[in-house]
Structures are given as structure tokens and as C-alpha cells.
Amino acid sequence: MKGSTNKFIIKNGVCPQYIGAPLHINVGALRILVFDKNACVGVVWKHFENRYSEANGQAEIRFFERYRESYGLWHRMFVNEQRISYDRLQSALNESNEYIYWAKIKGY
To answer: Which sign, positive or negative, has the C-alpha torsion 104, 78, 19, 48?
Structure first.
């Protein structure tokens, strides 16, 4: 929930719903999914802008619209105040099938 520390389980899987602009992720697309308890609440995506940005290549969560009141829509992923690389997260998932992520959600 917004303003509190939440435990999320991150896993590879099939996106259960469409996400519109700017991501345009279709139902059934293979993605990194975000679970809070047993519910899939969003996806992780690799930040990319056409211009130079330090955020490029970093992992961010896009929560599904129905969880907007609980979490907001976007969350930048950090561990020990350092951004998490999307590629490193994917490598960790390839090794262990899930990743536990603790995060304080600001709710943008």
C-alpha cells in the first residue's frame, strides 16, 4: 500500500491483462510479473527513452490500473538506494525463478 513497505514476489510469467501506452503489453506476453500475496498486481519493464537518461536499462514496475489506489501506477525499483538493472533482475530470475522485493511505495 502507498506509504508503507510492501513485500512483492517477482516472477517470470504470462501477462494477464493488456497495458496501454506507453508500454503496449498484450495479454499473454511473456513478462516479469509482480505479485502481492497471490494476486498479480503489475509487470516489470526496462526503462528506455530515446534520449540519454540514467534511468535507461533500469527496472520499473507498472502496476495494473485496478491497483492504482493501492500502489499508484509506477514504481522505480531500488535496493540499498541503488536502481536495479532490468538485465540483472532477469538474470536473478533465470537462476532462482523468483525474487523477493521489499519496497516502500510512494504511489505516483
So the answer is: positive
Please choose, from the candidates 101, 108, 43, 49, the residue with its C-alpha nearest in 3D space to the C-alpha of residue 75. Answer: 108
Asked if 8 and 36 count as a contact pair (C-beta separation under 8 A), the reply is: yes
Q: What is the DSSP letter of 89?
A: H
Q: State the pLDDT confidence band at 53, using cuts at 50, 70 and 90.
A: confident
Alpha helix (H) ranges present in the chain? 68-71, 86-96
Return left, alpha or beta for 80; rule: phi > 0 is left, psi -120 to 50 is alpha, else beta.
Answer: left
Mean pLDDT of the 65-94 span: 93
Contact yes or no for 76/49 (Cβ under 8 A): no
* 3-state secondary structure at position 55: coil
Number of other CB atoms surrounding residue 86 within 10 Å: 20
- Residues 6+ away with beta carbon under 8 Å from 15: 25, 26, 27, 28, 29, 30, 31, 33, 43
